[in-house]
Specification:
The complex is a heterodimer. Chain A is of the alpha/beta class. Chain A is built from 17 helices and 12 strands. The termini of chain A are far apart. Classes of the chains: A alpha/beta, B mainly alpha.
């Protein structure tokens, strides 16, 4: 009786509602993947051109003989006692004519400061701030006796953006590099990443590629042998990073539409960042927010500018190896993305902001920000539709097949790009493993990341802040395979 | 539902098949690239091993004091066109690390192989042209000077820059006027980079740079570049025209570069030209002026007062220059008093005193 009543009252509406929802999901799927495919094609051309360009001008020779702009590396550190000394040592051995390192201790509760003071013979040294911005209280500035270009700013905890602002206060060079204290920069990373600033005076920011250090051999603060991580969770991330950087960033860069420069390694023009107000402290995605704000700032003032992605300067980072921590990281990334896009939604579909407002922001806002909601609901409604018998198994299977094959195609195209220009994984077996991962990630991992991103979106909508904890193993200990 | 009748299903299956084909193509491509790159790398390494010792012996004169290319790399080795480019690339790498006779020895060894770059130099791709020109500039400058100079006229700014760098490396200031005429090709390059390019031509570049810097009809960006280069070249002859032209200049960037030049190379009599800019509205101009005054001053009270006022300037950059200036003017005691006070500039004074050698 109830069934009959339900059938007569609701039944006539369910079919069209489901049809409507499935159409939205299907459209989202088509538009999202079409844009990824277009990006792949653009990235393919851009990587080829870049490889040719690299041959045409010897970067090291250029830097050695011509006014390389001085750079300050700002490395915020929070509870990094396991990695801080090793990371700073690696920063001090970069091949670049003129640079300073400012480590900002963001109120660590462990022995980060003590380790650094002891390892580098730091002593209190006054330094005037040149940027008028509110930060958590700065307790002391230190300078190394042994390495006069190494500084430590010890401050109360205020978050990563606050620490970056504190670093900016003491930065005196025209360019600065925002990075994580646990990131390992390759020796010539600065030489390579600074190239857009030399070749185009309009450049205000440039980012390099982030690669995963888990599984690699690290000696003296440098990656000496590149291997895939043993841990499956980290291994999936290798593929994701290749896709994100070589297809995503490279593709967007080719159309001057990059909205993200990774917080782990990005170079910025100090004066522009300061004029735009520095880093925003009330977001967990300060890296993306800054880049979107720089676009907005320059376009509103009609300042000619360029924001570039350079694929060969490498920063190595430690990827989470547990599902729980990876989930937290992805949740935070999604919140950061949502915050940045919502803060600057005034740019959305406004011709005043050019291609950023008309193409890039809509892509990120509608597809990347709200995408996880549609993706997860799509999975649920598809299953319900199937269980209720409103569609055939054949239809669902065909759709899933297309989804999976498309996912594989995109990942494989990223691997092709890697092989085309960079070839960091020298073993054929590694390439095969990555191919295999490109298939496997579609069965569980992809759905899991969609779930974490949805969780991040929901938390953003509920205005929840916070970074969560990301424990570090430390580069001096084995990261999966072996280490020195 | 009939499998073949539903157009949506047919579309899904067709898309799946197309994408599968794409995936297989991409996979094969990546796989083949991997194999090919490994083979190329192996071959490159093998060739390098074969050539390395002979090239280094030739460079140091170990084999013969003046190496004969035929004896270094005998003809019977039949180096293919592609390998010749590889060989040149390798020699370029070694040559960049060498100077004097060693370098000239390598240039001699490279000479017979330079024609291998002819095709690349005509390539429609500017990157390839730049690559060829870069090697020519490094190993065959004397023989191919005309081609390198012609490179300045290339439609690609990158090729023109590679040509300019080759000319600068060989210290050929006679080409600076030509380079100045082609500056619009380097419109986007950073100013310090361009200034450093001109500086590497040496003092012979100064007359052309002076002409550019003192010509108000030229773009101010390039005039700034020229002024920066003249300052690095310690070109005393540019001070007098700078002092003369500064009051008529309206662009603040050029004004600041004039002030910096006068401050670095001028004499106490030039102080009058720079003093008014300590009250300019642009902070970078005030900073340049405060520094210039402290450099040029013969420690008269009015100058010390002017520099001292800079400490209270709202711009930290002006204050920084003022603090360094006071120290240079022998007013360390004033800074020490400031450092001990509760002034917002106490940190600055302490910093400058602490950094004192």
């Amino acid at each position: 009786m109830i069934d009959a009543l339900f059938e007569s009252a609701v039944g006539p509406y369910i079919g069209p509602a489901l049809w409507g929802f499935n159409t939205i999901v299907f459209t989202y799927f088509i538009v999202l993947n079409a844009s990824y495919l277009v990006l792949s094609v653009i990235a393919f051309r851009a990587v080829r051109r870049y490889a040719e360009r690299l041959r045409s001008l010897d970067v090291k020779e250029t830097i050695a003989h011509a006014g390389a702009p001085p750079i300050t590396l700002i490395a915020p550190a929070f509870n990094e006692e396991a990695t801080a000394v090793e990371s700073v040592r690696s920063l001090l051995s970069l091949n670049y004519p003129e640079y300073e390192v400012i480590v900002v201790n963001d109120g660590s509760k462990d022995a980060t400061v003590e380790r650094l003071i002891e390892a580098f013979d730091l002593r209190p040294f006054p330094k005037m701030s040149t940027f008028d911005v509110d930060t958590a209280e700065i307790r002391q500035t230190y300078r190394s006796r042994r390495h006069p270009h190494l500084w430590l700013v010890d401050k109360e905890n205020g978050g990563k953006a606050d620490a970056l602002n504190a670093g900016l206060c003491f930065c005196r060079t025209p360019l600065f590099c925002a990075m994580d204290a646990d990131t390992l920069l390759e020796r010539d990373a600065l030489t390579r990443v600074v190239r857009p600033f030399l070749e185009d005076a309009r450049t205000i920011a440039a980012g390099g590629i982030i690669r995963i250090a888990n599984g690699c051999t690290i000696e003296g603060g440098a990656v000496t042998e590149v291997r895939l991580p043993r841990n499956l969770v980290a291994r999936f991330q290798v593929l994701e990073y290749l896709r994100a950087f070589l297809v995503g960033r490279m593709g967007w860069d080719a159309v001057q539409g990059n909205l993200i420069i990774s917080g782990a390694f990005g170079i910025f023009r100090r004066s522009t960042v300061i004029s735009a107000g520095g880093f925003t402290t009330d977001t967990v995605g300060e890296d993306m927010e800054l880049v979107v704000r720089l676009h907005r700032y320059c376009r509103e003032r009609e300042i000619p500018y360029r924001i570039s992605f350079v694929p060969d300067p490498v920063a190595w980072t430690e990827a989470p190896e547990s599902i729980r921590i990876l989930g937290r990281q992805r949740d935070r990334w999604q919140r950061g993305l949502s915050e940045a896009l919502t803060t600057h939604r005034a740019m959305l579909l406004r011709p005043r902001y050019g291609r950023i407002g008309m193409a890039v922001m809509p892509h990120f806002y509608f597809l990347e920000m709200w995408g996880p909601l549609l993706e997860i609901m799509g999975y649920i409604v598809f299953i319900l539709t199937l269980l209720a018998g409103w569609t055939s198994l054949t239809y669902v299977s065909a759709f899933l097949m297309v989804t999976v094959v498309l996912g594989i195609a995109l990942s494989v195209s990223a691997l092709a790009l890697e092989e085309l220009a960079f070839r960091r994984y020298p073993r054929l077996s590694d390439l095969f493993r990555l191919f295999l991962l490109a298939v496997l990630e579609n069965f569980g991992y992809r759905q899991l990341t969609a779930f974490w991103r949805l969780r991040g979106l929901i938390r953003f909508l509920r205005k929840r802040k916070g970074w969560g904890v990301m424990p570090r193993v430390g580069f001096q200990k084995p990261l999966g395979v072996k280490s020195s | 539902m009939s499998f073949g009748a539903d157009p949506t299903l047919r579309l899904a299956i067709a898309s799946g098949l197309v994408l599968t084909a794409f995936t297989v193509v991409f996979m094969s491509y990546a796989f083949l690239l991997h194999i090919r790159s490994k083979a190329v790398e192996r071959r490159r390494r093998a060739l390098e091993t074969r050539w390395k010792d002979r090239l280094l012996d030739a460079a140091t004169g170990e084999a013969t004091p003046v190496p004969d290319p035929d004896s270094v790399l005998p003809e019977e080795e039949e180096i293919s066109q592609g390998d010749q480019v590889l060989l040149l690339e390798l020699i370029t790498r070694y040559a960049r690390a060498l100077e004097g006779p060693e370098r000239r020895n390598l240039e001699r060894v490279a000479a017979p192989y330079l024609p291998a770059l002819d095709a690349l130099q005509q390539d429609p791709d500017p990157y390839r042209r730049a690559y060829a020109l870069d090697i020519l500039g490094e190993l065959g400058f004397e023989q191919t000077r005309d081609r390198i100079v012609k490179g300045l006229e290339d439609e690609s700014g990158l090729v023109a820059m590679v040509a300019a760098r080759a000319l600068a490396r060989h210290g050929s200031p006679e080409y600076v006027p030509l380079l100045v005429r082609r500056l619009e090709a380097f419109e986007n390059w950073s100013a310090p980079y361009l200034a450093s390019l001109f500086t590497s031509f040496g003092s012979g570049a100064a007359p052309a740079l002076r002409e550019l810097a003192m010509n108000p009809s030229k773009p101010s960006r390039f005039r700034s570049v020229a002024l920066q280069a003249l300052r690095t070249l310690n070109d005393m002859a540019s001070v007098e025209p700078a002092v003369r032209l500064l009051p008529q200049e309206r662009d603040t960037e050029v004004q600041a570069d004039f002030v910096r030049l006068i401050g670095a190379l001028g004499r106490p009599e030039d102080l009058g030209a720079v003093r008014p800019y300590a009250a300019a509205s642009a902070s970078h101009l005030r900073a340049a002026a405060v520094r210039a005054v402290s450099n040029l001053s013969d420690r008269r009270t009015s100058d010390i007062e002017l520099v001292s006022r800079g400490l209270d300037d709202p711009s930290p950059w002006v204050a920084l220059q003022a603090a360094h200036g006071l120290l240079a003017l022998g007013r360390g005691d004033e800074l020490a008093a400031l450092a001990a006070s509760s002034s917002p500039r106490a940190d600055l004074a302490a910093e400058v005193l602490e950094a004192r050698p």
